[in-house]
Amino acid sequence: MLQAKIPQITRHDYQEMPEGPPYFQVIEGELIMAPSPDTFHQDIVANLCHLFRQYLDKKPVGIIALAPLDVFFSYVNVYQPDVIFVSNARRSILTKRGVEGAPDLVVEVLSPGTARYDRGSKRKIYARTGVKELWIVDPETKSLQAYELTKNAETPAATHGPDSIFKSSLLPGLRIRAQAVFKSSLQK
User: Is the whole-model pTM more than 0.90?
Assistant: First the structure.
């Protein structure tokens, strides 16, 4: 039986779409839409942003940005990572339209609908396109896996639990308490 091959969605196709919401990503040529993240997911993103901004106010070594912001990795891979860091040395990849190339650091906070992409195909594309460090944050287990993608894209360099203090080799002197990352606006 003959099967018709569905054409891949390209960066050009994506850029012709109306602005969201809803928000989409192009993962290996497939258009993916996910529901809005839950409150705890958004708390984690806000907490990380706050911690990064405090650090960058003291040591302005780059910029931090949050989703939704298009990051163009290739012709068939356009993502909206939850948090990105771009060093001053690579600031030229920032454009009015989004980010043209791999940020230095990407943070993905897992959601039920997108976790398989974050842990799978997106992680591989991040490694292949030059992202140096990837943090995968799991709200359910309150843990963070830190990958040093230039060294090993398959195995995390470290896994941090809810009581850990962790750091990034890209941001000297930054120390983050996991408890600060997992604070929730719904806790009393």
Answer: yes
